What does this fold into?
Amino acid sequence: MITLKILEKAIERRDYRFLAVKIADKLREYEWDDEDIRNLSRKLDEQAD
It folds into this structure.
């Protein structure tokens, strides 16, 4: 589970890699496959630019 406390700590430390791993783990629980997760990551990267 991604709790608010985990989210706050990751943002405070600017540990976005840790946060990305936690989000990917949660998406896998919802039966997302690795390709879907990569596609989401790409779309988020594009929007951040």
